[in-house]
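Typical record was shown:
=====
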Amino acid sequence: MITVIVIPVDPGQPIRLQQLEPSDVDAYQQIVGGNLQIVGLDRPSAAMYLNEEGKLNRMRVNHRATTLMWVHNSAFRNRDVIVGPALIVGPPNRHGNDTSAPEDLTDLLFNTKRYRVQLWTGSDPRWVSDAEVFIDWQEAYRYALQLVETREAAQEVRVVPELDNELREQWFKLGVENPWISSADDPPFTEHSFVGCYSIEELEERIGHGNWSIGTAFYYRDLCFINQVDGGDEWLTIRHGIAFESMTLEPSIEEGKFARLIHRLLTATKAQCQALTY
């Protein structure tokens, strides 16, 4: 069984998670109301199924599915719309079968409390955050589409979780309690030092860049790393409100084990983190 995101055409019906057998084409067709068409999505990699004959059958425009498609696949932006119900799955596995909808996307749409929009120009590898914060994912996505149309040189746009203020304060307190991190002065370690990464790949790319100053801090979901050595690779690791480990991460990146390490940390209980048995 896999978990899919179902997007009804009726805006009065909430989007939902549903369990399906990836080989059960009839179940897919029952959701979209006919033969299947597929559209690829990016950031994270996913796919959206829709009704192949929806426009011929004059099905209603699915505004939520269209908004998601326009943000996650800019090739369709302002060029095409989704009609009828839709569902989202993850990328195919090595056997060519659908996988569950990406956890980063399901977490964003179902579990996130606050959202922020980021733009990418193409001339800078970094994403630039807009100042607005939203409490509804649909409002954030609509604003993202407005923003990418009006900001000069903007090529891509994404919606990301906004860091919870309590979590930020907790991480900052743990950081300043560390004698190496509290000594950071170029730049100083502050409550604004935390840089969000919105996939494991992005976190790996950031940390793997190397030569970070003391107090550089990256986070993914509720997992935080703060560098303790100037230009080094010694990261104070925080989860469940505790600074439980000092990690050297570049070897795991070089050996291709970084993603597995992060998955272990994200599934570890507080007791496992404290006992270092993750």
Observations:
- The mean pLDDT is 95.
- The chain has three domains: 2-102, 112-161, 165-275.
- The radius of gyration is 21 Å.
- The CA atoms of residues 94 and 239 lie 32 Å apart.
